[in-house]
Specification:
The protein has helices at about 10-25, 35-45, 55-60, 65-75, 90-105, 125-135, 155-160, 175-180, 195, 235-250, 345-350, 350-360, 365-375, 380-395, 395-410, 415-425, 430-445, 460-475; strands spanning about 110-120, 145-150, 165, 180-185, 190, 200-205, 220-225, 250-260, 270-275, 280-285. It is of the alpha/beta class and about 475 residues long. The strands form two sheets. The chain has a seven-stranded mixed β-sheet with strand order 6-2-1-7-8-10-9. Strands 3-5-4 form a three-stranded antiparallel β-sheet. β1, α6 and β2 form a beta-alpha-beta unit. α12 packs antiparallel against α13.
Length: about 475
């Protein structure tokens, strides 16, 4: 008797596709994503000229899709949108702390700087870094600078290599820098000048695969790795694997920079360093034993420039001197990407002093100053929110929870406090409470425009925080 073949139900086929995508690219695709995946599949079946959706699934599962076809699927499941000079908090940290400290340390040695933008999309991030270095280093020609940009999406990389951008990519770029580093190509297009474009190399790389560290793709002995708004798409296993590889990609005293709210689950490999407007991660060399408290490095002052660190400001305003060479002929000063310093009244308040102390890793001092600030103004929710941040950095979860609840009591719509408290409770396994706070944060954020900077959440926009929250809530 002839045996008939029973076609698996469409939902089952979608599950197979979802699981296969997750394994191949490390993307976190929970079952709730299947509806979105189904809509994407329907659209791509027509665009890629497959007869049926099942035929497209079969081609993916049997590894018969072309590279371009696979990219079409992945690009629909991730957000590759970016722009020049994105994130004021990170620019402040880079311009005033990390890069000047790194330059001073390297000046008497090889004068070699190595950076990697992992998940660079269309290239705005690595080109921004190149422009900052050009502004900071008047003697740039005496240095060897390597900036590597990689991404999974080859179409994005082709645009990055071309270096041609529309006006939307410059929505946070000062006119001075746009005029200096880009040429008007007409029809609303602007091209990055050759001097900057040649500073950056681009190559495809799948962070879910063991393709790094490697000399072949310039991912060894790096000074800073930028991996921002990428880890949030990965499974926990992929994140752990990527962090392990990042650790071995970095040279001594190397740094890992992630997006706000992309907390690292590997405290034995990276030490979190709070720099006031955000947290970056220093390579722990050697790695700490599991369970060892991740103390802040004692020499954190070494990364700060001697002239001090302006930290609260409007992006790219004001003037300051670039980092000058110590030897040789004096170099004429150029304008530097810098930030307006806070006024004297702000600088002398206990809460501002607490932030400055936390910048230097002096968490005990920061805690005392924060409490002094709260004593002066017990009705200021930001004092309690800062107390929660410092307490959490010290590992005092109970104190952080109590301070966040006081923040919310004084400002019931304080979205960052709801968000942070939800994440802490989720980490403690208190899923029901965590979900309520995260949902509240989501509700309050809807009142803001997408590009509004949510203070004091480290420069993250309302739109980005909403996207992260939606993803967390889908996880349950």
């Amino acid at each position: 008797m002839e045996q008939s073949f029973i076609q698996p139900p469409r939902d089952s086929r979608l599950s197979q596709l979802r699981i296969a995508i997750s394994k191949r690219f490390g993307l976190r695709l929970p079952e709730e994503k299947e509806r979105e995946l189904g809509a994407t599949l329907k659209e791509l079946t027509h665009r890629l000229e497959y007869e049926t959706e099942e035929a497209l699934i079969d081609a993916f599962l049997s590894l018969k899709l072309t590279q371009d076809e696979e990219e079409e699927i992945i690009s629909q499941l991730t957000v590759g949108e970016t722009y020049f000079f994105r994130d004021e908090a990170l620019l402040s940290i880079l311009n005033n702390r990390l890069l000047p400290g790194l330059i001073e340390r390297k000046r008497e040695g090889t004068r070699t700087l190595r950076f990697w933008s992992a998940g660079c999309a269309t290239g705005e991030e690595p080109y921004t870094l190149a422009i900052i270095l050009k502004e900071l280093l008047p003697d740039l020609t005496e240095w060897q600078v390597f900036i590597q940009g990689t991404d999974l999406n080859r179409a994005s990389l082709r645009k990055a290599k071309a270096g041609i951008y529309r006006s939307w990519s410059f929505r946070n770029t000062p006119d001075r820098l746009k005029e200096r580093y880009f040429s008007d190509k007409g029809d609303g297009n602007f091209g990055i000048i050759p001097e900057i474009r040649k500073m950056v190399r681009f190559a495809p790389l799948n962070l879910a695969q063991a393709q790094y560290p490697s000399e072949l793709n310039n991912t060894r002995d790096l000074d800073i790795i930028f991996c921002r708004n990428v880890l949030m798409y990965f499974t926990k296993e992929t994140i752990a694997d990527a962090l392990g590889r990042f650790y071995h990609c970095l040279g001594p005293e190397g740094w890992l920079v992630t997006a706000p709210c992309e907390a690292l689950p590997s405290p034995n490999l990276f030490l979190p360093v709070s720099l006031g407007q955000g947290t970056v991660y220093r390579k722990s060399d050697p790695p700490l034993q599991p369970g060892t408290p991740a103390l802040f490095p004692s020499g954190i002052d070494n990364i700060a420039p001697g002239e001090g660190t302006p930290r609260r400001s409007i992006l790219l305003k004001g003037k300051s001197k670039p980092v000058k060479p110590r030897t040789g002929e004096p170099v004429p000063a150029k304008k530097q990407i810098s930030l307006q310093p806070m006024d004297e009244g702000e600088a002398t308040s206990p809460l501002k002093q607490a932030i400055a102390a936390a910048d230097k890793g002096k968490l005990g001092e920061a805690l005392e100053l924060c409490r002094a600030g709260i004593e002066k103004d017990r009705l200021n929710p930001e004092g309690y929110y800062l107390l929660a941040q410092i307490s959490q950095e010290q590992g005092d979860t109970s104190e952080a929870i109590a301070a966040l609840k006081k923040t919310i009591y004084l400002d019931s719509e304080h979205a960052p406090a709801h968000f942070r408290l939800g994440l802490i409770l989720a980490g403690l396994g208190r899923a029901g409470e965590a979900k309520r706070y995260l949902q509240s944060a989501r509700t309050f954020l809807d009142k803001y425009p997408s590009e509004f900077i949510i203070s004091p959440s480290e420069g993250i926009t309302a739109g980005r925080l909403i996207a992260i929250l939606a993803d967390r809530l889908r996880q349950g």
